[in-house]
């Protein structure tokens, strides 16, 4: 029999049943996102200007991920990131209504700028370096760990970005815990 007529054997009923389990699907989806991230490369050139973003998923635990997905389905204040390639810096762009939740979480924090439509907050510095969890690939590190950001949560986040298509970027959200980083989610950015 030649190789063109050979077909892959169908999955077993146990395989199908296992794949239908929500926990199994979550694990598989996160593993696929990790594989896609590792297949990407550091953006060259680095992004410049505003890139609309989407939270793809959190990767903490099934209950917390489901909670974030539910809340994000009702209210997602994050619009994307604005990059300044020449200065290796940037800002997160949020909807105007995010100002009240920001004040509730970080009472002494003042956003960088605001207009009638948006709030710019949580500045970051960028650099190309090996991934914290994936050192075999170079990534664009989006680093919040400096005085302009609140110490609670924000300064412990390190986003890493790879380019996976001409205009599409995949980001991995890392959280510093006990001296090392732990992956907690994925997001995408798209250039126009």
Keywords:
192 residues, 8-stranded antiparallel beta barrel, 24% helix, globular
Question: Which helices and strands, and how do they pair?
Answer:
Layout: H1 13-20, H2 22-39, E1 49-58, H3 62-74, E2 78-84, E3 89-95, H4 99-105, E4 113-114, E5 118-130, E6 138-143, E7 157-165, E8 168-177, E9 180-190
Antiparallel strand pairs: 1-2, 1-9, 2-3, 3-5, 4-5, 5-6, 6-7, 7-8, 8-9
Structural features, described:
- The protein is α+β, with helices and mostly antiparallel strands.
- Helices cover 24% and strands 39% of the residues.
- The protein has helices at residues 13-20, 22-39, 62-74, 99-105, and strands at 49-58, 78-84, 89-95, 113-114, 118-130, 138-143, 157-165, 168-177, 180-190.
- An eight-stranded antiparallel β-barrel has the order 1-2-3-5-6-7-8-9.
Q: What's the tally of helices?
A: 4
What is the terminal separation in angstroms? 49 Å
Fraction in beta strands? 35-45%
What class do helices, strands and sheet pairing give? alpha+beta
Concise synopsis of the structure shown:
With 192 residues, the chain is α+β, with helices and mostly antiparallel strands. The protein has helices spanning 13-20, 22-39, 62-74, 99-105, and strands at 49-58, 78-84, 89-95, 113-114, 118-130, 138-143, 157-165, 168-177, 180-190.
